Structure formats: C-alpha cells, structure tokens
Amino acid sequence: MGLVGLISKPLKSTPTVESHFQSWIPYLSCQLLPLLICDMVAVARIINATLVIPELDKESFWQDSSNFSDVFDEEHFISSLANDVKVIKKLPKEQATSIKAVKHFRSWSGVEYYQDEISDMWDEYEVIRAAKSDSRLANNNLPPDIQKLRCRAFYEALRFAPQIEALGKSLVERMRSYGRYIALHLRYEKDMLAFSGCTYGLSPAEADELTKIRENTAYWKVKDIDSREQRTKGHCPLTPKEVRMFLTALGYPSNTPIYIASGEIYGGESHMADLDSHFPILMSKEKLSSVDELEPFMPYASQMAALDYIVSVESDVFVPSYSGNMARAVEGHRRFLGHRKTISPDRKKLVCLFDKIERGSLKEGKKLSDLVVEIHKRRQGSPRKRKGPVSGTKGMDRFRSEEAFYENPLPDCLCWKEMPARNSSLATK
After folding, report:
1. Longest alpha-carbon distance in the chain
2. For residues 356 and 325, is the Cβ–Cβ distance under 8 A?
C-alpha cells in the first residue's frame, strides 16, 4: 500500500496537513499506515502545519471501508501529540473552497526539502494534497527532535482502537495458555505472491492465476518477473514448508505453540499440510476466537491485520517469512520494547540450502541444523545501531538500501545503557 495525502492551510497563519492514504499493494493497510501516518506527523512539525486526521483509502484491492477511528484510538492520537503538532479531526468548513494543489513529495527527503520547497507552497495554496507519501521522509540525518517525534507518534500516540486492543489482548492471553509461543508472520498470501512474482512450489494453474492478477493490476508497474531469479536472490517469502524446515533446524520442538499472523494462505491446506503436521499447535485469530468475537472485524483487512500485529508484538519470538512493512514495523516495535527476540530468516542463504535438500545433496538433520543456526546467530533482534546504506550504492538505490527507521529506531529513540536484555530464548539451541 502506498499513500496519497492532503496537506492544507485552513488559515493563512496556520497551515494544515491532511493525509489521505491510497493503497497500491492489496491487504497492507495496517502494515504501512502506522509508519506513514507517523511520518506525516513529523512532516507537519517540520513545516509548522496542523495535521488533519487521515482518511483511509476505501478503493484498494481489499475494499476495506475502515475509517481512522475504526482502526486507531483517535482521541488518544490527538491528545498525545498536543505538545508537538496540532491535530484536528477534519478540515474546517471555511476551507472547503480553499485553493488546493497536488504535490508528490520527493522520496527520502530531509528537513531542508520540506522547509524550502514545501513550505514555500503556502504562499500560493491553502490546501496541498501530498500524493503517494510513503518513504517521503529520510531514515537518517534528521534533527534529533524530529526522529524522537517519529518514535513518540508511532510507539505512544498511535495505538489501536479500544475494541481491537481488547480482542488483541485476549488473543495474547489465549496463546500464552499454550505456553511460550512464536508469532509467525506467514506472508504466503495471494496478493504478495502475485505482486512479487514468486511461484515456487505452486501448480501451473496457481502460477498462471497469479500472473494474470499481476498483469491486470494497473498500479503494479513490473509485469514480467523471473520467479526462479526472485527466489534465488531471496526476494520471495518462504513457503510454509520452508518455514517448517527453518524452525525445525533452529531446534524448535513439535509441541511449540505457533500463532499464524496472516490473511488467507494461498492454496489453503494443500500448502499448509507440512507445517501443520510438524507443529500441531498451530493457531490463528480465527481458531482462538469465537465467531461472535471476530465477526465485527472480519470484513476489514486493516482491523484483522491489527489483531495480528498485537499478538506478534507480544509474542516470545517473532519470525517473519518475508521482510515486508508489517514485519519491519513489528521488529522495530519489539526492539523499542526491549529488543524482544525476532529471528529474521536469511532467505537467500536458506533457499540455497533448501535447494540442496531438494536435489538430494543435503538432508534434514544435524548438518542442516548447524548451518541454519550459525547463519542466524546475529539475526535475532539483539541491540545494534541502524544500518546505513550499502557501500557503493548511489542515488535512490543508496536510500533504498538503508535499514528503515521504524525497523530499528536505535540510536535515535533508544539508549544503549538503559536497554534491558530481554531477548527471549524460546529456541532449544
């Protein structure tokens, strides 16, 4: 999901920013919205604007009609930011006929860009639509107060609506009744596979269906994708079977409780059978809650994703099968709460090992386990500073290669000396 927003100036002395978010990757409402909203808070601060509560897109692939207050605690959001940015629920009526403009903010921009180019627009316009505003604020080299505001907005001001929080906490308690649990963000869903062009392990009919979806989705620019190349480079989400091999190799026993955080798994039971047979305590929001409890949320993808987010943040171990926006947000949130254990699969290296198993040159067992454990010793959420750009990259590629701010808010929002060592050790190795 990308963003489309409005930035407006209802009074000549008080510019206003109104963010209206539009989707481009289906299902990702809650995976991206918290990050993007919080960046709009920071932008509003930079250009001395008032933030109007965002309107969420209602025309995405999943046809989610949720409003901001359906997903987030609106009053808490407004009051928590009162000392940083003025937030109002909607644009005043007197601004309905204000002069408006549409502006695509430049990707990964710093303070100077907003203070110079964007602030100057107030001379001509009272309302500015900030179109496609995802990744419009730099990860690094921003003033400390702006970075701290991003964290304050994300980790304190932006919290889910009371009804979502209540059921989410109940789901956490029910998972804990089974023991210490893993939250598995299994991004093996139709939209993700179609968008990424990943068809490994699928039937020809399934692969063809995904290709047609990608070809018929106008706002997905890349149409021709080499699925084998994608997988070899580690750009594909792990399949449920690959996740099973990964967790087994890490030493997790079959009685480990696992919460599946995802939408509908593509192919259903046909692709889940291997994972399900090896880890029988495989739970989900659908299994943990009654029909009556879940029914109010089921028509809304963003609200269902919010429930998964809560259970994932509170899990003993979090494992994402793909490094998408929700996975990065959960990892960063867990770091902020004391570097709770998050195991990030090295998909590129894992695929190499799994291919050897498929060819018969490697078997599951101690050798595979030793290799997997060694590869992931430093990929478990331990405290470290946020990674900068990859050496040798230039231009936009340089910014793309940086670790996302919300994936690891250290050092901007965390202190080395005060961070507790709360890295849960659920694994047996």
Report:
1. 72
2. no
Structural contact between residues 28 and 325, judged by C-beta atoms closer than 8 angstroms: yes
Q: Is residue 63's pLDDT more than 70?
A: no
Q: Rounded mean pLDDT of 329-344?
A: 96
Is 20 within 8 Å of 54 (Cβ atoms)? yes
Judge whether residue 417 has pLDDT over 90.
Answer: no
Q: What is the pLDDT of residue 61?
A: 53
**If phi over 0 gives left and psi between -120 and 50 gives alpha, with beta otherwise, what is residue 409?**
alpha
Burial 128-153 (b: 16+ CB within 10 A, else e): bbbbbbbbbbbbbebeeebbbbbbbb
Q: Cα–Cα–Cα angle for 261, 279, 255, nearest 5°?
A: 110
Instruction: Tell me, letter by letter, the H, E, C secondary structure of 207-240.
Output: HHHHHHHHHHCCCCCCCCCCHHHHHHCCCCCCCH
pLDDT tens string 176-227? 999 999 999 999 999 999 999 999 999 999 999 999 999 998 878 899 999 9
Q: Identify the weakest region by mean pLDDT among 43-52, 142-151, 342-351.
A: 43-52
Q: Is the pLDDT of residue 414 over 50?
A: yes
**Which DSSP symbol is given to 55?**
E
- Using a cut of 0.85, tell me whether the model's pTM lies above it: yes
Residue 32 has pLDDT above 60, yes or no: no
Task: Give the whole-angstrom CA distance, residue 195 versus residue 421.
Answer: 38
Report the alpha-carbon distance of residue 69 to residue 106 in Å, rounded: 29
**Which residues are CB-neighbours of 300 under 8 A, at least 6 positions away?**
64, 65, 66, 70
Q: SS3 of 387, please?
A: coil
- Alpha carbon distances (Å) from 418 to 143, 338, 407, 413, 422: 22, 10, 19, 12, 12
Residue 8 in tokens: 């407006």
What is the Cα–Cα distance from 362 to 351, expressed in whole angstroms?
Answer: 12
Residue type (1 letter), 19: S
* Identity of the residue numbered 98: S
pLDDT at 124: 84
Phi, psi of 137 (to 5 degrees): -125, 135
Tell me how many degrees the CA angle 303-313-419 measures, rounded to the nearest 5.
145
Q: How buried is residue 394: exposed, middle or buried, by Cβ count under 10 Å (0-12/13-18/19+)?
A: exposed
Reduced to 3 states (helix: H, G, I; strand: E, B; else coil), residue 170 is: helix
Nearest-5° angle of CA 47, CA 53, CA 58? 120
What is the bridge-based pairing of β-strands 258-261 and 182-185? parallel
